[in-house]
Design a protein that fits this description.
- The protein is α/β, with parallel strands linked by helices.
- It folds into 2 domains: about 240 residues, TIM Barrel; about 60 residues, OB fold (Dihydrolipoamide Acetyltransferase, E2P), CATH 2.40.50.
- The chain has 7 helices and 17 strands.
- The strands form 4 sheets. It has a 6-stranded mixed β-sheet with strand order 4-5-7-8-9-10, covered by helices on one side. It has a 5-stranded mixed beta barrel with strand order 13-14-15-17-16.
- The model has no long low-confidence stretch (mean pLDDT about 95).
Length: about 350
């Protein structure tokens, strides 16, 4: 059973369920992020049913996180989407990504349907590994209006895929079938986004390139966007594998471009992206504001907070103070980039 914490916040185990009227801008792990482009990041969950060995956001069952987030009110979420979109010119994309995987939110089709209602929204995109998805879910996403799937597939080898995903139940053959079903049966475009892990999946990426070309993926943008393996402070690292330099990464992509005749070194324009008016909370670095503590945040010494006027979510950092659920604390904003608010007690 879920426990009510504050208005619009319930908790079950380590997961917060967020509903009206809890604000959905200001936090990295849930809600909406506007980075000043004609695309908005939409985060409706931080949960993931895989535990990839190279995960940059430390998601999944092997995560060190102590709190997770699930947005549970599609209508409320769509109102925030509409608010941000209203600040921008026509042709806004909405990318459902996550510090996890969006398919772990069972309300995903409804979130997409309500987002697609906005006439200024050009494309609705889903970034996912599709583990746990079914044909029925693909049918529902297509009916809801999903335009593109950015699918993360790092190898087509079943054994290696299970190893890299950190989950022995991960079935890459099923994922491949779902991707092809979405593309060929429903016309949902596909952009394949593997991670290059030097010495681990070099040859596998060649097979993925051939698969993408063979299926004709990438009707509106290039079919592939190969990512560089990057070690993040909160992320996971594969033992004995060094992060490649950007120069090494580009040389690897150029070699594949020459071999297969497909564009792999991409720019913003390849994705149809451009700078756009940015929506941000009015709080700026150095400002002070009263914060209501909802509870612990994703990691130790982090707390989920909301401004006392209930307009903006934020993260409070504190190593010294004894902070408890329901406390009201005067805090100073120390970071406001892209509307993601981080504060410390004054």
């Amino acid at each position: 059973m879920r426990k009510t914490i504050l208005r619009g916040v319930e908790r079950k185990g380590s997961t917060y369920y967020l509903n009206r009227p809890f604000p959905l801008i200001g936090h990295l792990y849930f809600g909406l992020i506007d980075r000043g482009l004609n695309i908005i990041q939409a985060r409706i969950t931080s949960l993931c049913n895989l535990s990839c060995r190279f995960c940059s956001v430390d998601a999944g069952q092997s995560s060190r996180r102590i709190a997770e987030f699930m947005v549970w009110d599609p209508e409320w979420f769509s109102e925030w989407v509409d608010l941000i979109v209203s600040y921008k010119e026509d042709g806004v994309d909405v990318l459902f990504d996550a510090a996890g995987d969006p398919v772990t939110n069972p309300l995903l089709p409804e979130f997409i349907r309500l987002t697609k209602r906005n006439r200024k929204v050009r494309w609705v995109i889903l970034e996912t590994r599709l583990h746990g998805a079914t044909r029925q879910l693909i049918d529902e996403l297509a009916e809801a209006g999903l335009d593109r799937i950015n699918v993360s597939i790092d190898t087509l080898d079943a054994q290696k895929a299970a190893y890299l995903s950190g989950n022995p139940s991960y079935n890459i053959e099923n994922v491949v079938k779902l991707v092809e079903y979405a593309f060929h049966q429903h016309g949902i475009d596909v952009h394949v986004a593997p991670v290059w892990i030097p010495g681990v999946n070099d040859h596998d990426l060649e097979e993925i390139v051939e698969w993408a070309i063979r299926n004709g993926f990438g009707r509106r943008i290039p079919p592939l966007g190969i990512q560089k393996y990057v070690v993040h402070p909160h992320g996971r690292k594969i033992q004995n594998i060094d992060e490649p330099s950007w120069e090494e990464w580009e040389r690897f992509l150029r070699r594949l471009e020459d071999k297969y005749g497909v564009k792999l070194v991409l720019s913003m324009s390849d994705y149809g992206l451009r700078k756009s008016k940015q929506f941000k909370p009015p709080l700026r670095r150095g400002d002070e504001t009263w914060v209501i503590i909802v509870g612990e945040g994703p990691y130790q010494h982090e707390f989920l907070g909301v401004t006392k006027d209930y307009k903006w979510a934020l993260t409070l950092l504190s190593k010294k103070e004894v902070i408890e659920e329901g406390d009201i604390i005067l805090a100073r904003i120390i970071r406001d980039k892209d509307g993601i608010l981080i504060a410390v007690p004054t």
